Amino acid sequence: MSWRLVVVTALGACANADHESPPANDAGYGSLIDHTRWVALDAEGDPFTAHRPEAVDCPDWSRQIEGALYEVETGDCNYASLSQTTLRPIRAGDRVDAVLWHLWLWAPQVAEAHVAIQIGDWLFFEETVAIPGPEQSYSPSGVAPKDFPLGTPVVFHLHNHGVNSWRLLSIEVAAP
């Protein structure tokens, strides 16, 4: 086998790995989400309807996969409540970790951003962020208060005013 074939094969495997569901493991830890599975919620299914504007304008191209992360561009998306179901169950006492961040937050007037992650009825993470403001990363971690079966809804919620970029990398059950 030539070295070119090995490199091309390895690069192809890496490119495809970003969009495949993670392999199952006996221990039950690993990713809870697959970025290809996010769907926008309508008002009836949105647990954050109190934040929802009268007119939601969030075209598909304003929220998309960028490599291994999911990006929402708020200059083109005024509100996003996105959902999918968990890829694995969560047991009471499991630690759940997430990684997300935003770039510099800017708007022509002072405003606030709101970001949240909800798993079933558990509000796992919620933050209100002042705009304007510097880039910031978040690594929320929490202990599951109860069992959540495979297929439990996960909601990634975001809204803010201005031309800003938010990125969600992961939500996962942490290895012990």
What's the helix and strand layout?
Elements: H1 3-17, E1 30-31, E2 39-40, E3 63-66, E4 69-73, E5 80-85, E6 95-102, E7 111-119, E8 122-131, E9 136-138, E10 141-143, E11 153-159, E12 165-173
Summarize this structure as a short list of keywords or feature phrases:
176 residues, mainly beta, Jelly Rolls, seven-stranded antiparallel beta sheet, five-stranded antiparallel beta sheet, 1 helix, disordered N terminus
- The CATH class label is Mainly Beta
Structural shape: globular
Q: What would the average pLDDT be, to the nearest integer?
A: 86
By DSSP (H or I, 4+ residues per run), the number of helices equals 1
CATH architecture, please?
Sandwich
The total of beta strands comes to 12
- Give the low-pLDDT segments: 1-26
Order of helices and strands: HEEEEEEEEEEEE
Number of domains: 1
Largest sheet: 7 strands, antiparallel
Label the structural class. mainly beta
CATH topology name: Jelly Rolls
Roughly how many Å apart are the termini?
Answer: 40 Å
Query: Whole-number radius of gyration?
Result: 17 Å
Helix percentage: under 10%
Percent strand equals: 35-45%
